[in-house]
Amino acid sequence: MVAEIGQFVLILALITAIFQGVFPLIGAAQNSQPMMRFASNAALVQFLAVTAAFICLTVGYVTSDFSILNVANNSHSLKPMLYKISGVWGNHEGSLLLWSLILALFGLAVAVFGRNLPDTLKARVLSIQGLVGVGFLMFILFTSNPFERLDPAPLDGSGLNPLLQDPGLAFHPPFLYLGYVGLSVTFSFAIAALIEGKVDPAWARWVRPWTLAAWGFLTVGIALGSWWAYYELGWGGWWFWDPVENASFMPWLAATALLHSAIVVEKRDALKNWTILLAIIAFSLSLLGTFLVRSGVLNSVHAFASDPARGVFILIFLIVVIGGSLLLYGIRAPQMKGGGLFAPISREGALVLNNLLLSTATATILLGTLYPIFLDAFTGAKVSVGPPYFEATFLPLAIPLVIAMAFGPFLAWKRGDLAGVISRLKFGLFLSLLLVGFIWWQQTDAPVMAFVGMGLFAWLLIGSLLEWSDRIKLFRGPLSSSWRRMKQVPRSAHGMTVAHIGVALVVLGITASETWQTEHLGVMRPGEIVSVGGYDFRFDGAETIAGPNYEAVRGTFLASTGSNKGDYLYPEQRRYTTPPMETTEAAIRPMLSADLYVVIGEEDGTGGYAVRIYHKPFISWIWIGSFVMFFGGALSLSDRRLRLGAPRRTRQQKAVATDLSGVKG
Amino acid sequence: MTRKKRRLYFVLAGMCVLGIAAALVLTSFEDSLVFFRSPSDLVEKPIEPGRNFRLGGLVEEGSVEKNGVLIRFKVTDLSEAVPVSFEGLLPDLFREGQGVVTEGSFNEEGVFIATNVLAKHDENYMPPEVADALKKAGQWKPKGGG
């Protein structure tokens, strides 16, 4: 019964989405109020219908209703409740339903929070949002129906891939989707602006919070994914430049660029066409990511099933969305008026550099990701593009980006004073060189990237702090006046500082863990001690234990330094029953200074166990930094100016007009 | 500064960045393209020692020898087999008769020294490259999964 209700409301959602896509668009063209107002109601109905469908599927999972094919294939009655629920989106059909749900949620959010949007813009945004929804709902209903029945119903389900039974991964897809789909809103705004033929600072002000939100969610989603890879796959790595990872990283890079270029549109009324294009590209990359991951083109834990009908559908959908929006862009963009002028050395100039580097990096990653697919399609040759390619192309682009990140915020709008900025950043440069010198003194033969990375970390951290203290005039007057200034500085400025510091921390984590990691690989017998990274690891033996739906060999290790009593670590080698599968559960002791990471392998027949032990300095800072970045984004999003939306249109235009005359004069 | 001049600056800056990126891509592409080969491919077209590539197929039944963390096994497509040596912890799904993809290079003795063993798929699933290689060797049995 539940499945039939779910099926029904899903069809209802599709019909609503079609109406939402068509009528407001006509209404906006004919300036018909009722038709435009229909958009918000349709968004609400579509959201309720998709939510109902999602609840129906969740009920199927929670009650272990194995007469539903999807539940039977992906769940099991013995599975813990958290994973029964996360199983809803741990498969192809369910994950698409989650995507549609979030899409409808964002549509509703535009309807609710966009009260002060001009009627036509709002109607058009919602209608584009509806059309994207049509695509996804059709995809679900015609090729990936989650409510398909199974007759006769099996006695029990075949279970969820144990690798996916993990709290980090339970929340990784929802966050990633919130990010992917959040970019649909900026996309809808961009298309609506192209239809209207008008982009102004007010438009950028409406777009920026959505970009920020999408960017923040993507940041968390990617961080959770890499954290999961780090502790669950048991290889000690956290980023593999796997096509699936790239698929989420590319929209993130594009969103980061968009975030910055939207500031230029908002503050200076320039870079409009570019920002529109970037919004289209960012969402296209989200769709492409979904296509790559869901179509089964890629071989990974994410590729649930390959079905040619699905591939063809997604391909057509991609062509329609990306091709159509680029066509519209080609027709309408030349008519957009150019904006304010600025010198190359200026805040705008720095943001353009940011955009150039980020979009070039995105392009090189796209090339490396798609190349094997195209080569296979055209010549049948099987190749893979490995991490060396991505490191060789991404790092040289990321380094100037980080250098510029400390510079940019110091530069004034329109025309910056480079000499002045350098003199204000002297202190940062001095401390960075001091740190590099210290590392050289400690370890003369450290790899070059260690010096570069640590130097960049110090440069960006100190540069950001200097800029912040400059802004509030710290130590240049009584503290109370600095405090007052700090409260006056808009939250988005604080948010920028925090997010940039987050990047610095990520750079620290990556550099230190890549450079100074130490490891031990070998067979250990009970009682044996090995020393890794200044810690003594004593192996106390292994035992077999039983979990709720698995059996495991669990090793006991005591890690201690000379001065402390030490910590116990319990790595496991698990054997799940449904589906039968083994997983490695690394034991990790995370600390701010380093992570201890122990993996236990098989018994060698004589009582010894294959063991791998890592000491990874500062690696936690990769994820701490990511969350600091997210926090910076959230802080920026809480800015009053963004929350209340843009001021009235007339005032805005006047402000821009005076601004422009100021430039010309 | 005129609009035209500004545009020129940006076009120049853009060309610079793109030029650098193109140079980076071209220089690193050649070295980091990792080809996939099946044991039969290697008989047809041998690969010189030291060249990095991916070798995929099934882990030959009865070929796995473990000596601590040093593992020797053979990768086969059921017509040809290649000896492989790997030092490390095997992935969870490594098993005799199952599909596997290994990355590494030949040493002078013709043993494939794997730096990485990938077996990320589940029990019923075959890496697509391995499935293709088996099909080519005429040994594909869809139901058994190998």
Question: What does the secondary structure layout of this molecule look like, with pairings?
Answer:
The complex is a heterodimer of chains A (665) and B (146).
Chain A: H1 2-30, H2 33-62, H3 69-74, H4 81-86, H5 92-113, H6 119-143, H7 167-196, H8 201-232, H9 243-268, H10 272-294, H11 308-332, H12 347-379, E1 383-385, H13 387-407, H14 418-442, H15 448-471, H16 479-488, H17 491-516, E2 518-524, E3 529-532, E4 535-546, E5 550-560, E6 567-569, E7 572-576, E8 581-585, E9 587-590, E10 594-603, E11 609-617, H18 620-637, H19 640-643, H20 649-664
Antiparallel strand pairs in A: 2-11, 3-4, 4-5, 5-6, 5-7, 7-8, 9-10, 10-11
Chain B: H1 3-32, E1 33-37, H2 39-44, E2 53-59, E3 65-67, E4 70-76, E5 81-87, E6 99-106, E7 112-118, H3 128-136
Parallel strand pairs in B: 1-2, 5-7
Antiparallel strand pairs in B: 2-4, 2-6, 3-4, 4-5, 6-7
Q: Between the first and last Cα atoms of chain A, what is the distance in angstroms?
A: 72 Å
How large is the share of residues in beta strands of chain B? 25-35%
- The geometry of chain B reads as elongated
**Percentage of residues assigned to helices of chain B:** 25-40%
Please summarize the sheet with the most strands of chain B: 5 strands, mixed, barrel
Radius of gyration of chain A equals 27 Å
Q: How many extended strands of chain A?
A: 11
